[in-house]
Design goal:
The complex is a heterodimer of chains A (about 100) and B (about 500). By secondary structure, chain A is α+β, with helices and mostly antiparallel strands. Chain A is built from 3 helices and 4 strands. Chain B has a 9-stranded mixed sheet with strand order 5-4-7-8-3-9-10-11-12, with helices on both faces. In chain B, strands 17-16-18-19-15-20-21-22-23 form a 9-stranded mixed sheet, sandwiched between helices. A two-stranded antiparallel sheet of chain B has the order 1-2. In chain B, about 45% of the residues are buried. The chains are: A alpha+beta (about 100), B alpha/beta (about 500).
């Protein structure tokens, strides 16, 4: 069931800062490993589209937003800690299985 | 006196009284910290700053809210006549609600708050804002784990706002022993304002104090402020100078017989008179005469009644032949009745202040001023009366205060008398004496600054035609019963006969 799930992610950045570049590299890597073929990443550069920041309540840069599946989850930072990102996005089926 | 030099440009706040205290407003293009405990009016002050900026100074503003939604904010201030929706539609106001839901946020790795900067920048640029409010940025501490990063980002934000040249109000909740919970005052070094909400003897008082204002003169006292249907109004107490000009013009007391007891035939215009006496000594009647005389000169009277409602006052004065009704109808006489315990002393003073400002009366009567004493301490009452008298003097308003004294005649012990008597220019003492089963009313002028006055104790009657001052001294004991005390004519005659 969960395998059919599509993941729609959105990464908010503000220009090509080292943190933003790192975040994009990280999330692309994780997605390839765990969600191959079942994800899309949209990149929003707030320097170009500042009006988009309010919609997803963005205050920190970079911010990764999981739009689908719901509910919305946000991860702020350069996403360097893989474990936390996967838990945060609820990607790992293993961890959800241990829960009762 | 030299005009105070303007050290740097200021942004008028549009808040009544605050501009006077800050000598022109907030420092232009710099952040101002407004702090205080919950419910002290921070958000309202900030909103008023923005809205007045738009309406009165044509300076668009951005409100970044971390606590209340746009809808809530608009609703909360709509009762003050602020229409936020319209201002937003006119591109004069932007409200951005920043919601940080900790449960849906995970932190990993490095980040900054550039998103906030971008939002703010976008809002400011889209309407050309000159004023910004951050209410209250401390909420971020609840949503972000990395406090160290947050602090450095907040510092950067304030510097950024300064570089941007917008005048900013940053609000902060008061912490334990610190001005704000997370020490925002460390980052805002230009101007810090503390709002306080205190309950003393079950009466709430709001106060404002400027803790610091770098590079500018400012009043350093605690100033009472009021939140009413017009928003926040601060009462500046700085004008305590004894340099008001005086008049040599004479006005009538309203009672020709009483006028004659003064060398100049009345009070000086713009002076203050105090009428003291125990209960039932006709203080209010004298005050009504004074009101009447002002009305006859077509000068507006503001009558503060702390004991009687307007209708009651009119009815009661009617029975001694003083008809105030037509003047009340034509708004020449405005009676403002309220219970002393309704609000704190400062609030009463503010209400007086505001009414005097809006009605611009030539005569003000406070009846009785002693009622206010029940709600304040000695020094408070005195300070308030000084301020009130000062304001009246500066505006050249004729004033009359009545004060209830207590028997025995230890008047110097009485707080109100003590406080007012040295400030008042004229002091009239009323007394009731019981003698041979009858009451005698006496009147004595204790002082009258700048003119001679009768030194005798006068006795008087109250009839249905008003006060009748007997031209004889009290010791002659002639005709000294009064109509109200013993309305029976035959009895009175009999009494007179016995005396003679």
């Amino acid at each position: 069931m969960a395998k059919e799930q599509k993941w729609e992610l959105r990464l908010y950045i503000a220009g090509q800062t080292p943190k933003s570049v790192l975040a994009l590299q990280n999330i692309t890597k994780y997605c390839k490993e765990h969600l191959e073929g079942r994800y899309s990443i949209e990149i929003v550069d707030l320097l170009k589209n500042p009006q988009l920041a309010a919609g997803d309540q963005i205050f920190a840069i970079p911010t990764l937003v999981r739009k689908v599946p719901e509910p919305i989850r946000k991860i702020i930072g350069d996403l360097s800690n893989e474990e936390r990102v996967l838990v945060g996005l609820n990607i790992r089926p293993l961890s959800s299985k241990t829960k009762t | 006196m030299n005009q105070p030099k303007k050290l740097f440009p200021k942004t008028p706040t549009g808040i009544n009284g605050l501009d006077e205290i800050t000598e022109g407003g907030f420092p232009k293009g710099r952040p101002v910290l407004v702090c205080g405990s919950a419910g002290c009016g921070k958000t309202l002050m900030a909103m008023q700053f923005l809205v007045k900026g738009i309406i009165e100074y044509n300076e668009p503003g951005v409100f970044m809210s971390f606590e209340e939604t746009v809808k809530d904010l608009a609703q909360n201030v709509s009762s003050l006549g602020f229409n936020l929706d319209k201002l937003a539609a006119d591109n004069k106001l932007r409200i951005d609600y920043v919601r940080i839901e900790k449960t849906e946020i995970e932190e990993t790795g490095e980040y900054d708050l550039e998103g906030l900067f971008i939002r703010l920048n976008h809002a400011i640029n889209s309407i050309g804002a000159k004023r910004v409010v951050l209410d209250t940025i401390e909420s971020l501490f609840g949503g972000i784990e990395n406090a160290g990063l947050l602090r450095s980002e907040i510092r950067r934000l304030f510097q950024w706002l300064k570089d941007k040249g917008v005048t900013t109000i940053i609000t902060g909740e008061r912490g334990d022993g610190t001005l704000t919970r997370h020490g925002l005052e460390e980052y805002v070094s230009d101007c810090v304002i503390l709002l306080d909400f205190r309950v003393i003897d079950q009466i709430a008082t709001r106060r404002l104090r400027i803790i610091k204002y770098r590079g500018s003169m400012h009043g350093s006292n605690e100033y009472p402020f009021l939140i009413d249907e017009n928003g926040i109004a601060v009462l500046p107490i700085t004008s305590l100078k004894l340099d008001h000009s005086v008049s040599t013009e004479i006005i009538s007391t309203g009672l020709p017989a009483l006028d004659k007891l003064f060398q100049a035939n009345g009070f000086y215009k713009g002076s203050s008179a105090l009428v003291t006496g125990t209960a039932g000594t006709a203080k209010t009647t004298l005050a009504a005469y004074f009101a009447l005389s002002s009305c006859r000169r077509k000068e507006r009277v503001l009558y503060f009644s702390f004991e009687e409602s307007p209708d009651q006052l009119i009815r009661n004065m009617m029975c001694v032949g003083i008809n105030l009704k037509p003047y009340v109808k034509s708004k020449l006489l405005v009676v403002h009745s309220s219970r002393p315990s309704l609000q704190g002393l400062e609030m009463h003073l503010l209400v007086l202040h505001k009414l005097i400002e809006s009605l611009k009366p030539k005569t003000v009567i406070v009846d009785p001023i002693s009622s206010l004493i029940t709600i304040g301490t000695n020094s408070e009452v005195r300070a308030m009366l000084v301020r009130l008298l000062d304001m009246l003097k500066v505006n050249a308003i004729n004033a009359m205060f009545t004060a209830l004294t207590h028997q025995p005649i230890n008047e110097t012990m009485d707080l109100s008398v003590d406080a007012v008597s040295s400030l008042a220019d004229t002091w009239i003492k009323l007394k009731n004496e019981e003698e041979s089963g009858n009451r005698m009313r006496n009147l004595l002028i204790v002082k009258s600054r700048g003119m001679g006055h009768s030194n005798q104790m006068w006795n008087f009657l109250i009839t249905d035609k008003g006060i009748q001052l007997n031209s004889k001294e009290v010791i002659t004991k002639k005709n000294n019963t009064d109509a109200i005390a013993s309305g029976n004519k035959t009895k009175r005659k009999k009494f007179s006969a016995v005396i003679i």
